[in-house]
Amino acid sequence: MKKNYFIDGLKDSSIFGVSFIFLYLSIGANGYANALSVFESVATTLFVFSTPLQFLLVQSYQDGFVLIPLILAMNARFLLMSATLSPYLKHQNIFYLALSSILICPSVFSGCISKFKKMSEYPFTYFIALGLPIWLVSLLCTGLGASMGAALNSPELREIIAIVLPLQFTGLAAKHYPNFKEIGSYFWGFLFAPFVITLTPSYYLLIVPFVVGGLMLLYDEAQRARAKDKR
């Protein structure tokens, strides 16, 4: 049974992980374009592993302390994701949880939550099988991107990413069916992103998640208020 959950995680990892190949090749290539060494580029994936935050760090590292508030704001979402996963992983040894915490990213979180709602055994096995291959592939692709540099820092790669990303998030949204509230959060992200890109092309990856998250919070509060009124 444990083996089956591990295989399920590997299967889902192959689905979610395709887009990470192109994303992290691009992150490595951006590191090269911004005069980062291969080690410095790979270090962002090794220790950060957050696509929008890594793009921000690689492209704006010279801004120094100005980035600190943005980094703290972005990292706050990992507290929320970890807190949401904790009831499912509460029986796992804290040492292994600490070691594996780097694997948490929106794609892994989304895949785990949709799976955990349908299973009660071996959640940590599934989490590792889903997250570890994605992280390792991302490390490899960051290094390749930084090594190949100019050959990958091209308009063609950006066009591929522009196609792959929507496909990835469509697949993530589908994993939440029939929970239409979660699916709706992806819809609002697709809806707001073009407008925010127009206003702030450099920081839309930071702003859109907070806008959508705020809307979902307001929706939940409105639902709770209606429930109280009915009582």
Automatic annotation (TrEMBL):
For whether the record's keyword set contains Protein biosynthesis, the answer is: no
From the Swiss-Prot or TrEMBL record, state where the protein is found.
Cell membrane
Per the record, its GO cellular-component terms are: plasma membrane
State the Pfam families in the record: AzlC
Q: How does it sit in the membrane?
A: Multi-pass membrane protein
Instruction: Please name the GO terms of the biological process aspect recorded for this protein, alphabetically.
Output: L-valine transmembrane transport
Segments spanning the bilayer are 12-32, 38-58, 65-88, 94-114, 126-148, 186-219
Keyword terms, alphabetized: Cell membrane, Membrane, Transmembrane, Transmembrane helix, Transport
Record carries keyword Iron: no
Q: Which PANTHER family match?
A: INNER MEMBRANE PROTEIN YGAZ
Spell out the family assignment given in the record's similarity comment: Belongs to the AzlC family.
Quote the protein name from its UniProt record.
Branched-chain amino acid ABC transporter permease
Q: Which organism is it from?
A: Helicobacter marmotae
